[in-house]
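Data availability (excerpt). The following record was deposited with the supplementary files.
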Amino acid sequence: MQAAGAQVQVTRPLRIVAMGAHPDDAEQKFGGTAALFAAQGAKVKLMALTNGDVGHFAQAGGPLAQRRKAEVEACHKTLGVDTEVLDIHDGELMPDLETRRKVANVIRDYQADIVLSHRPYDYHPDHRAVGTLANDTAVLVVAPFFSPYTPPTKKNPIYLYYSDAFTKPYPFDPIIAVGFDEVAQKKWDCISAMPSQFGDADSWQARYRSNVPTDDAGRKTYLLDMVKQRSADVANQSRNLLVKLYGAQKGGAIKYAESFELNQYGTQATADELKAMFPIR
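Predicted structure:
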């Protein structure tokens, strides 16, 4: 894959690290795009910065952490991507030097060209910490002696943020949107592989959300439909951008999409350069 223009040129298969706070965050925000990237030969790693060990209403600790790692590995097998789960307690992620080094080492080891994260403006402290950690690794991943036991990246990666609905200090401002209708079932299968979040009666979403059906089949359908609707909402909110990227006919017909904002701290890329890199055809 090769990006157009002078700033960004990648002639080998792209390498992408998509980080989330918990084992289900990157999957929700990037799962469809990740499946498309993987199908085109890119190397993609979905990374959780905590082990998710308090993300359930009836389980916790080591057993839940092990369960969620197994679930996300099954999800990633469906998407065709690599897995990384840091052993940091859920709810306790801090953007400190030790964790900055851990995250930078993953990016350096993977030789990432693109890094994705939450924005540092979010309802959840772990999500905010991920955004700050992503920002704080930019530039340092290139510094040879910041972490001398891992090789620096050849250049500062392109950093992107996932979409969200928060408006302060400023609303999400997408530069790129990806329609993933053709691989949507892979994303839905991925979500269904994580019943600790989207299936159990005591799963996080089943207990956290209101009006969730109490029967197993109805509950699972309801929670999966919730994820589908979020992806449909992104497509509708990004409609003008999708039309610009895909053309009027295809862009107007895309049902499910994921969108991304350019982070100013990484290597800067134009919309055209990102279009050439991303699975937009």
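Summary of structural features: The chain has a mean pLDDT of 95.
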